[in-house]
Design goal:
The complex is a heterodimer of chains A (273) and B (80).
Chain A: E1 9-10, E2 14-19, E3 22-27, H1 37-55, E4 60-65, E5 70-72, H2 77-84, H3 89-112, E6 116-121, E7 124-126, H4 127-135, E8 138-142, E9 146-148, H5 162-169, H6 172-181, E10 184-186, H7 187-193, E11 198-200, H8 205-216, H9 221-231, H10 236-250, H11 253-264
Helix pairs in contact in A: 1-3, 2-11, 3-4, 3-10
Chain B: H1 4-19, H2 32-36, H3 40-54, H4 69-77
The chains are: A alpha/beta (273), B mainly alpha (80).
Chain lengths: 273, 80
């Protein structure tokens, strides 16, 4: 037996519980589950729970959001900018590198865990939120979900393993389109591109994910774990390269200027060139 | 092929349903951000609904800076 508490844990940004044999992780930090230090710390605390659930033969893991705006708007750019502002370029890079190493550790654990992981997404699935979903084995998308990698619009690249995981899942032409335009695509388009595996009716993504988890629960766990290891190797060299490129780009003044405009913007529409 | 007026009317109907306001309270020249008091994330949800309804893909950068239903309709019309 494990001493990890799988049941009924509620943090500030996350909560998790066992439901019908599946471990469910709810993202629940307003306004839209921005991934900053608080969310990262709780994701790190979730990892042993995830591994315990796998060891105890949970049927699957479902990640979803309780925030109406969506699954996650991605990295907490306001926190990132505030932390970077008083620092030298060198210190900024050091800080962001530490964050990236930690979030990569978490997402790699989710990616490689020996049970099936399902992201049930709705609304905004942007940047780091999209990268979190991509770490999962399956993505079930509400028909009003919207996916985007806006990082290049701020002078950066995705930093949570997004490019290697995209390249693992879809063709390079799709990766270029999403990254080099920074445009968002809807769930139907994401399905046609192979980014998501199922589209649900409005408000039904979690229910569809639960039904999928129930089916997965009928399968032999050892076989699932072996299949995952075979089907879904983590592209570690590319992950490492991504961190290095991100840090190199992050040191440039143009990034701080882009973040400043984004953070200081008070219009209804965000600053995104 | 729908006319621009027909497209505009369908958008107004869908927006009214989406944000749960009477259709009669909306007109083509309204600023939807102000009218519904919405932010960009809520606007994206409406955009997705419109894409699903019209069967088009409308990159978000094409509606950046767009605030009026009339202009939004012309962007969608260009993709029909």
């Amino acid at each position: 037996m494990t001493s990890v508490n799988v049941n009924g844990v509620h943090g500030k940004a996350l909560s998790w519980e066992m439901k019908d044999g599946a471990l469910e992780l709810a993202l629940d930090q307003p306004p839209c589950n921005e991934i900053g230090t608080a969310m990262l710390e709780e994701l790190e605390a979730f990892v042993p729970v995830l591994e315990a659930a796998a060891a105890e033969n949970a049927s699957a893991v479902i990640l979803y959001s309780k925030q109406p705006a969506g699954f996650s708007a991605g990295a907490d750019l306001r926190e990132l900018y505030a932390a970077a502002l008083p620092r030298t370029a060198e210190e900024r890079v050091e800080g962001v590198r530490e964050f990236l190493e930690r979030i990569h550790w978490v997402l790699n654990k989710i990616d490689a865990v020996g049970i099936t992981t399902i992201a049930a997404v709705h609304g905004v699935v942007f940047g780091g939120g999209f990268e979190l979903a991509l770490a999962c084995d399956l993505i079930v998308a509400d028909k009003l979900a919207r996916f985007c990698f806006p990082e290049l619009r701020l002078g950066l690249i995705p930093g949570f393993g997004g490019i290697p995981r995209l390249r693992r899942d879809v063709g390079n032409a799709v990766v270029r389109d999403l990254l080099l335009t920074g445009r968002s695509v809807n769930a139907s388009k994401a399905l046609s591109l192979g980014l998501v595996s199922q589209v649900s009716a409005e408000g039904e993504a979690l229910q569809v994910a639960r039904q999928t988890a129930a089916q997965i629960g009928k399968l032999d766990r050892k076989t699932t774990a072996e299949a995952k290891r075979f089907l879904k190797p983590i592209p570690r060299d590319e992950m490492r390269a991504e961190i290095e490129i991100f840090c190199e780009l992050f040191a440039r003044p143009v990034v701080m200027e882009g973040l400043r405009k984004f953070v200081e913007n008070t219009d209804a529409q965000p600053y995104l060139p | 092929m729908k006319t621009l007026d027909e497209t505009t009317e369908e958008i107004l109907m869908l927006a009214a349903q989406h944000f749960k306001v009477p259709r009669a309270e909306l007109s083509a020249g309204d600023d939807f951000y102000k009218k519904f008091k919405i932010d960009s994330l809520q606007m994206l949800e409406l955009l997705t609904r419109l894409e699903n309804h019209f069967g088009v893909e409308l990159p978000d950068y094409e509606v950046q800076g767009v605030t009026e239903f009339r202009t939004l309709a012309s962007r969608i019309q260009a993709r029909l």
